[in-house]
Design a protein that fits this description.
Elements lengths: L2 E8 L3 H12 L5 E5 L4 E8 L2 E8 L5 H8 L3 E8 L3 H10 L10 E3 L3 E6 L9 E6 L2
Parallel strand pairs: 1-4, 5-8
Antiparallel strand pairs: 1-5, 2-3, 3-4, 6-7, 7-8
The protein binds zinc ion.
Length: 133
């Protein structure tokens, strides 16, 4: 894994949270993007070399809606950049990690993504992401 690509934060109200994080960072998000496959709307902030992704649900069957029905708003996942996502999935499976989607899917921000179940990673939801060229 190359580096932390971004940190994902689950929020109830994207507008309100964009306002809050804009105040915190002293700047506005650089983009908003809807991910149909996940029923989420995301908003991205850059702070120096780091990226923060806010995620809000767009429907009740969204993973974010389910998460927020059981948890409070807050850090939802940590995403790591990889250069070969399929190779990394294979490696992690061999190491005993539970992969949520073995076939990478199109995520936000022009990335192929895959998730590692928090039950196999000390309670942390891990996202792997590879830039789509
Ligand atoms: Zn993410």
């Amino acid at each position: 894994m190359k580096k932390i690509e971004h940190i994902g934060i689950a929020v109830n109200d994207l507008e309100k949270s964009e306002e809050l994080f804009s105040k915190l960072f002293g700047k506005s998000p650089y983009k908003r993007e809807q991910v149909e496959s996940e029923s989420v709307i995301t908003s991205f902030f850059k702070t120096g070399p780091n990226k923060i992704e806010l995620l809000a649900a767009t429907s009740e069957d969204s993973a974010i809606a389910k998460y927020l029905s059981k948890n409070k708003e807050g850090i939802h996942h940590i995403a790591f950049e990889v250069s070969d996502i399929n190779k990394e999935i294979k490696r992690l499976k061999e190491e005993g990690f539970v992969i949520l989607n073995e076939i990478p899917k199109k995520g936000a921000d022009n990335k192929l993504v895959c998730f590692v179940h928090p039950k196999s990673a000390n309670g942390v939801l891990i996202e792997l992401c590879q830039e789509i060229k």
